[in-house]
Recover the amino acids of this structure.
C-alpha cells in the first residue's frame, strides 16, 4: 500500500514537472519567435509627402516617427511593439489627411502596409503571415 502511494506521488510529480517545463518552454519560444509590429509605408504618388506615424497601445502613444518620402520610395519601420494586443496606427500625410487603423499583434507576423496614392488617398492594409 505504501509503495503504491509512493508510485502515485512520484508519477504526479513527474507529470507536474513535465507540464511546467513544457509551459515555460512554450511561452519562451512564442516570445522569442514572435515578430514585432512593423509599418511599411510606400509613396506611390508623383510628389514627395511628409508622413507622421504614431502608434498607440491602450490609449497611450508608444511610438512616433516623422519622415518625408520621395516619389516611388518606401520605408519599413520595424520593432515598434512586441507585446500581444491591439494597437492603433495613426498616419497623417502632409499635415492634412489622417487615417487611423486598428491592428493586432498576436502569435504571427503583424505588419501594417500603407500606400500613399496622393494627399487624400491613403490605403492601409493588415499584413499577417
Amino acid at each position: 500500500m505504501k509503495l503504491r502511494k509512493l508510485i502515485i506521488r512520484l508519477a504526479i510529480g513527474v507529470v507536474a514537472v513535465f507540464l511546467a517545463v513544457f509551459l515555460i518552454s512554450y511561452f519562451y519560444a512564442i516570445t522569442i519567435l514572435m515578430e514585432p509590429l512593423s509599418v511599411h509605408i510606400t509613396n506611390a504618388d508623383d510628389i514627395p509627402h511628409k508622413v507622421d506615424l504614431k502608434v498607440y497601445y491602450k490609449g497611450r502613444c508608444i511610438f512616433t516617427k516623422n519622415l518625408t518620402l520621395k516619389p516611388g520610395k518606401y520605408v519599413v519601420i520595424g520593432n515598434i511593439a512586441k507585446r500581444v494586443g491591439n494597437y492603433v496606427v495613426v498616419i497623417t500625410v502632409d499635415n492634412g489627411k489622417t487615417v487611423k487603423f486598428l491592428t493586432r499583434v498576436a502569435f504571427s507576423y503583424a505588419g501594417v502596409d500603407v500606400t500613399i496614392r496622393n494627399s487624400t488617398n491613403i490605403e492601409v492594409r493588415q499584413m499577417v503571415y
User: Anything to note?
Assistant: The chain has two domains: 1-33, 38-128. The radius of gyration is 23 Å. The first strand starts at residue 38 and ends at 43. The chain is about 25% helix and 45% strand.
